[in-house]
Amino acid sequence: MRIDVVTIFPEYLAPLDVSLVGKACAKGLLDVHLHQLRDWTYDVHKTVDDTPYGGGPGMVMKPEPWGLALDAVLEQGESAAAPVPRMIVPTPSGRPFTQDLAVELAEEPWLLFAPARYEGIDRRVLDEAATRMRVDEVSIGDYVLAGGEVAVLVMVEAVARLLPGVLGNAESHRDDSFAPGAMANLLEGPVYTKPAEWRGREVPPITVSGNHGAIARWRRDEALRRTSAHRPDLIGRIDPAAVDRKDRAL
Ligand code: ADE
């Protein structure tokens, strides 16, 4: 997968060189290209923002640098894995970023992220971009960050770990909270590792019972308990038949 990010803070995305995403890049599974938006400004101050039409607080990102930056990225289509990327614009007013959307994005050969600072990007940039490629405005949660770069880190990590070959064990994300399947919409329950006793606390005996059916049922019950405690809103979305199917399969 190819990922382009146009930003005034490419250094904010340095964590993409680290850990899971960094390793995916090193293995050639991910090809990340960071672009400095100011490279497409032509005044001495490299200005990327201006006051909003209609007044109001804050500044708006100017259309000209964004237009040229997107033109330049789209020109890469010749050499990229797809003719055009899918563009993702992080904004608190976007559609929610969910595991389903992460799964959908992980299927794309090419993503282009356009994180904004200030009050956002002049709307015409997104309207014009939408005539050339698919554009989604996406929010990572109901809070306001200082800019979209951290949201890009969140989305790239959630997508990258789904790419084939990125996680050591392909099963690792099968039981993720929010993963599709029997455990869909159930939060993952607690996990334990060795030693079996630590500071007088023992692991739940079932986990060392060797009874895989009973362990799976216990995990499901813990997941239900945690979901009702932390996310009661998800309980209604659980498919009881799927949960029972898992039980019968054991
Ligand atoms: N930019 C600022 N806040 C954001 C959020 N919650 N999600 C995505 N992008 C943002």
List descriptors.
single chain, 250 residues, alpha/beta, Alpha/beta knot, Trp Operon Repressor, Chain A, 2 domains, five-stranded parallel sheet, two-stranded antiparallel sheet, elongated, binds adenine
In short:
The chain is an alpha/beta fold and 250 residues long. It is built from eight helices and nine strands. It is elongated, with a radius of gyration of 22 Å.
Q: Can you walk through the features of this model?
A:
The protein has 250 residues and is of the alpha/beta class. The chain has 2 domains: 2-160, 3-Layer(aba) Sandwich (Alpha/beta knot); 174-248, tRNA(m1g37)methyltransferase, domain 2 (Trp Operon Repressor, Chain A, Orthogonal Bundle). It is built from 8 helices and 9 strands. The strands form 3 sheets. Strands 2-1-6-5-7 form a 5-stranded parallel sheet. A two-stranded antiparallel ribbon has the order 3-4. Helix 1 (19-26) links the parallel strand 1 (2-7) and strand 2 (31-36). Helix 2 (63-75) packs parallel to helix 4 (123-129) and helix 3 (99-106) packs across helix 5. The longest helix is centred in the last third of the chain and has 19 residues, at 212-230. The structure holds adenine (ADE). Residues 90-92, 139-141, 143-145, 148, 151 line the site of adenine (ADE). Adenine binds at residues 90-92, 139-141, 143-145, 148, 151. Belongs to the RNA methyltransferase TrmD family. It catalyses: guanosine(37) in tRNA + S-adenosyl-L-methionine = N(1)-methylguanosine(37) in tRNA + S-adenosyl-L-homocysteine + H(+). Its EC number is 2.1.1.228.
